[in-house]
Amino acid sequence: CGSIEHARHVFNKMSKGDVVLWNTMIGAYAQHGHAEEALKLFQQMQTENVKPDNITFGSVVKACACFKALEQAKMIHAHIIKGGFQSDIVVGNTLVDMY
């Protein structure tokens, strides 16, 4: 029940972390209208070689929809297909919402 800024501060102090930690922070940004930050964090996640999962993609697609980032959404959709997540119900629902 704190602020996103406090959560990010804690996130930054932690070591590399696992996908759950990344999903939590990306999801928080996406749910609270900070789509651009969610997308930046997703890019950082990829840079640090943390493999995204269906929850990651659900949050990132939601961020794209909120941010009206169609080109970025298309790239993420390609990642979804490449990773085999296109038939996942969470990912599928967020893709439908986005398009």
What features would you describe in this structure?
With 99 residues, the chain is mainly α. 75% of the residues lie in helices and 0% in strands. The protein is built from 6 helices and no strands. The chain has helices spanning 4-13, 19-31, 35-47, 54-67, 70-83, 89-98. Helix 1 (4-13) runs antiparallel to helix 2, helix 4 runs antiparallel to helix 5 and helix 4 (54-67) packs parallel to helix 6. The longest helix is centred in the middle third of the chain and has 14 residues, at 54-67. The protein is globular. The model has no long low-confidence stretch (mean pLDDT 90).
Topology:
Layout: H1 4-13, H2 19-31, H3 35-47, H4 54-67, H5 70-83, H6 89-98
Kindly summarize this structure in a few lines.
The protein has about 100 residues and is mainly α.
Question: Structural class, from secondary structure content?
Answer: mainly alpha
Query: How are helices and strands ordered from N to C?
Result: HHHHHH
The gross shape turns out to be globular
Distance between the termini: 32 Å
Low-pLDDT runs: none
Number of helices: 6
